[in-house]
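C-type cytochrome
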Amino acid sequence: MAEEKVVRVKQLTRWQRIGVASLFVAGAFVLTGAAFILSGLYNIGATREHWSVTNFIITILRDRSVAVAAGGIEVPDLDDADLYELGEQHFLGTCTSCHGTPGDPLNPLYAHMLPQPPDLTGAFEHYDAREVFWIVNHGLKYTGMPSWPAPHRPDEVWTVVSYLERLNRIGPENVGAEDNVLERAQSLDTCRRCHGGAGEGPVSDLVPRLNGMSEHYLRRALEEYRDGQRASGVMGPIAFDMSDEVIAGSAASYAALPPPQGRVNPDADLTLGRRIAEEGIAGQDVPACRSCHGGGNPQVPRLAGQSERYMSTQLKLWQHAEYRDASPEGRLMSIIGGRLTEDQGQAVSAYYATLDAEPGR
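Predicted structure tokens:
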């Protein structure tokens, strides 16, 4: 009689048993979660707040994501009048539609959003400058908070961040009392709020001076903003709502105003700036600025009398490979601007800022 073979089953170790049990538990959680999701029992309507545990998880996820993504961002001097005064106009012109005017009740329509748009007066109580910048620049998924309309325009985003920091530091009642900016913003047309008009300059040196600029250039610039060929999270949405007739009227209005006079910066290297403007830099393959901006072509913007800070900021943008305008002129400037160093851009900007502008140039 053949000997019966005994099969011995190897007993699982303690950790193996724990592993198997964990797989069963995890599988049960997955199946239960899938069944709950497919059941449709969770109320997704904005009339009901999330469960406390849901809010807790979302808040942790959001804040950790923002903190990690914002690490390493370089913060400029936020206590800069050019930044926060321009940021104030951007905020009042766009952000208040959802977030409300500082110190005033929120519009009932937006008050019933879920999540509700926060009162940005306290933005800096919860986040630092890097994190506020990241949120304004990139937005937040599934909250209604959009990203900045123009990628790679940190110069525009920092103006809003600067204003919010000031708003948080001195309080909305003090910001509004400084010069009645809200009343002024509501009483002026969209262009004058930032660019000024007859007898008044721009709200900030970061804004171009349009008075006396060529009507042809102004019209082309607005059309390119409207068509998305120029990158600006401020001008793009404004120009999008402008008809051909409104664009033509605005361009003609500014072209008819007296052009600005030059301003001297005693600390600037005007010798280097003049050489770049008149001769270029042969070793860097940079042509003379006046070869295009000399005033002979009404489609080319005038540089004389323009704000030094505005011009140098624009040249810094051209020096970054990710910043591009789709227009032919924009593509050309991306090449030339990329060949200038920051110091050279500052010098040529300072030189042109000293020159008196001629009408229509």
